[in-house]
Amino acid sequence: MRKFITVLVAAALGLSACTQPAAIQGKTYPAYGLLNEDTNKSDKVCYEASAGSIVAGIILVETIIAPVYFFGYDLYQPVHAKAANGGCGIDA
Length: 92
Description:
The protein is α+β, with helices and mostly antiparallel strands. The chain contains 4 helices and 4 strands; from the N terminus they run H-E-E-H-E-H-H-E. Strand 1 (22-24) and strand 2 (27-29) form a beta hairpin.
């Protein structure tokens, strides 16, 4: 029974996306991770770490493949456009 529940939870996490692309100022920006930062990260958008991806990567660490996906391709999610001075914090 315990293995069944574990497989069910893993399947649910695998079939659900932790981060979603965000439409900011009419353009859609995808999430990025450590392996695709050069191709998916935009200098015009502020990003934050996805708690769902971090938790899923830690829980599924024994599978090896899941953490590679979550940390490599789905770690940071777009939040909002950068301020005029290029900052992302509350003082920007």
